[in-house]
Amino acid sequence: MNELPSCPKCQSEYTYEDGNVYVCPVCAHEWTGEAEAGQQEEIKVYKDANGAVLNDGDAVTVIKDLKVKGTSSIVKRGTKVKNIRLIDGDHDIDCKIEGLGDMQLKSKFVKKL
């Protein structure tokens, strides 16, 4: 007998095959074998404006004057930001800028120190 994979969502062993899709009757999760393998291998790499790989805790410099939405403040070019945190989303750097407070930046507007 052919051994079917357990459900990746709830780990149930009662999965069944429906065409080229696996189905879990416990949580109703559907998946293909190729799709699950691709999701596990996918790791997001964050890069700065020069293509250097960024990591949590790095220090970066802002390469362009950036307007702060909702205020008249500006993050000046050359501002150094220490101890960044990488997050998912459009603005992928979470940081604290002295004088402005907590802020999120796009990695394309910074360079690694």
Mind explaining what this structure looks like?
This protein has 113 residues and is mainly β. Helices cover 8% and strands 28% of the residues. It contains one helix and eleven strands; from the N terminus they run E-E-E-H-E-E-E-E-E-E-E-E. The chain has one helix at residues 33-41; strands at residues 16-18, 21-23, 30-31, 60-62, 66-67, 74-75, 80-81, 85-86, 93-97, 101-105, 110-112. The strands form four sheets. A three-stranded antiparallel sheet has the order 1-2-3. It has a three-stranded antiparallel sheet with strand order 7-4-11, with no helix packed on it. Strand 5 (66-67) and strand 6 (74-75) form a beta hairpin. The protein starts with 15 loop residues before the first strand and ends with a strand. The mean pLDDT is 87. Residues 3-32 form the Protein YjdM N-terminal domain. Residues 47-112 form the Protein YjdM C-terminal domain.
Concise account of the structure shown:
The protein has 113 residues and is mainly beta.
